[in-house]
Design goal:
- There is one protein chain.
- The protein is α/β, with parallel strands linked by helices.
- It has one domain: Rossmann fold, CATH 3.40.50.
- Strands 3-2-1-4-5-7-6 form a seven-stranded mixed β-sheet, with helices on both faces.
- The chain is globular, with a radius of gyration of 15 Å.
């Protein structure tokens, strides 16, 4: 596992030895960032963006964003082995000043009295067995933490048929082996 592009290009990331965390594969990550940077359907620029990385794991997505010029990333992770590696990866890349870690369950997001900023991009990479994506998307929308043209990226098992809120628009879905990435936004 490594950073693909940007100022940290080639730097290795620590990954868990157990099977409870599923880091985003380099090939999927590279394709995802190519779509973000080159698709005419996605009106989003990484440079100076603010990212919310939910179910962060060891930080493969958020740290790639920082490497490519994002202003800051807020990570939500509460699984202790992944959280420990996330902290080490941030420290190894010396980007503490551009990150914030929330050691909390993402479903408490709606109840938290945090000063969450307006995010340009939200990345959700829940366990594939997680079925409450619609609830989490509604919390994100109701918490009013998205900018007008924010994008939401969701990494899921390709066989799961999630139900999304009515005002969530699927822009693109790309398939990679046993997974898919849904690129969407709220109307």
């Amino acid at each position: 596992m490594r950073i693909i592009s940007g100022c940290f290009k080639g730097k290795k990331l620590l990954i868990p030895k157990d099977n409870n965390t599923r880091p985003l594969k380099d090939s999927v990550k590279e394709s995802l960032f190519n779509i973000i940077e080159h698709s005419k359907l996605i009106k989003f620029k990484l440079n100076n963006s603010q990212i919310l990385d939910l179910f962060s794991g060891v930080g493969t997505f958020g740290l790639e964003c920082i490497s490519r010029g994002s202003k800051n990333v807020t990570f939500f992770e509460n699984y202790p082995p992944a959280l420990e590696l996330l902290k080490k990866n941030i420290q190894n890349l010396d980007c503490l000043d551009r990150t914030e870690i929330m050691n909390k369950d993402v479903y408490t997001l709606g109840k938290l009295n945090l000063n969450l900023q307006n995010y340009d991009c939200v990345f959700l990479d829940p366990p594939f067995k997680e079925l409450k994506i619609q609830i989490l998307l509604r919390i994100i929308k109701d918490k009013n933490i998205l900018k007008k043209d924010s994008i939401i990226l969701i990494h899921r098992d390709k066989n799961i048929l999630d139900v999304f809120p009515e005002d969530f628009r699927n822009l693109i879905t790309k398939f990679y082996g046993r997974s898919k990435i849904i690129f969407g936004k709220f109307d």
